[in-house]
Amino acid sequence: MSAPRKYPQELRDRAVRLAMESDRPIAQIAADLGIHREALRIWVRQAQADAGQRSEQLTTVEREELKRLRKENNELKRANEILKAASALFAAELGQPRTKWSWWSITCVTASGPVPVCRVLDLCPGTYYDRKRRPPSARAQRDAVLIEQISDVHQASYGTYGAYRVPKQLRRQGVQVARCTVERLMRAHGLQGVHRRDRQRTTTPGETASRPPDLVNRRFTADRPDQLWPADITSLRYTTRLTDLGVVASVGSVADSHDNAMAESLNATFKTELIHRRSWRTRDQVEYAIVEWVGWYNHRRLHTAIGDVPPVEYEMAYYRSINTPAPTGAR
């Protein structure tokens, strides 16, 4: 379809004057002047509206005003959307230099274009184009490498490691990185560790049940591995089995949370890092997951209490320090 012809304003005025002042048909006047008859009819109706002869039609001045208001309204809507998005993204960085906002203008190019964004944010468009042409900074390049390494560590930890253990694991792998850098990148990419839930009381001790003596007496330290095992056992069957294996049972005082704190801490970690984070369909599925988690917990999970190393590594280091072969179960 061909584009509509544009007639000179002088020709339009002459055609309208002839149509309104003479008795000749509009079609004939349009043919004589080489104008489309429908175009001439539109011009005549608009001239009549401007002269106050057509109250149902807007005048030229009113049309121009309506066009201006619509354009202004669209610009205000776009500016409002830009400011909303900018305030959400940079609420924590309002005190930063304005050039820092040019980063956000890049993200808005596809939506509003760089010029409107820069105008609303009071930035020079040249700032955007300069940033677009500039190669990534050394920090940006290192961040791109680090976030992949951080994601690998986070995934390998079953998604449990946060900004405390991730940098420690990276340092064990030979990657020197500050904790604040890990926090920044994890926050920017939506990665976070797990946190324990509030403790709930699940058992109530019996008043008349027989109890082994308290041999530990809150001395929760040991001179060597496998000397003291905290446990949370309420079943007679398991207690009997431990006795058959030569394990001497020791039970703390009633209603004393300190005596059971170490065992409950492990239980809480187990539930937080594994059980409560997934939906389980079958018993076999739970058992397989527990086997995997226990292997990871003993061989790869970093433990703060023993210097941020896995338990097996810590135990092997102990036996090396005394020049004694480690037991088979410790390897």
Description:
- Pfam families: HTH_21, HTH_Tnp_1, rve_3.
- Residues 59-89 form a coiled coil.
- One of its GO terms (biological process) is DNA integration.
- Residues 191-217 are annotated as: Disordered.
- The protein has 331 residues and is an all-alpha fold.
- The chain folds into four domains: 9-57; 62-133, no CATH class; 138-189; 236-323, no CATH class.
- Helix content is 54%, strand content 0%.
- The protein has 15 helices and no strands.
- The protein is rod-shaped, with a radius of gyration of 39 Å.
Percent of residues in helices: 40-55%
Number of strands: 0
Main sheet? none
Radius of gyration: 39 Å
Please state the average pLDDT score: 81
GO molecular function, one term: transposase activity
Protein name: IS3 family transposase
Function: Involved in the transposition of the insertion sequence.
Keywords: Coiled coil
Summarize the structure.
With 331 residues, the chain is mostly helical. It is built from 15 helices and no strands.
Key phrases:
single chain, 331 residues, mainly alpha, 4 domains, 15 helices, 0% strand, rod-shaped, IS3 family transposase, transposase activity, coiled coil, DNA binding, WH-like_DNA-bd_sf
Topology:
Blueprint: H1 9-21, H2 26-33, H3 37-50, H4 60-89, H5 102-107, H6 109-112, H7 114-120, H8 125-133, H9 138-156, H10 165-172, H11 179-188, H12 236-244, H13 261-273, H14 283-299, H15 311-321
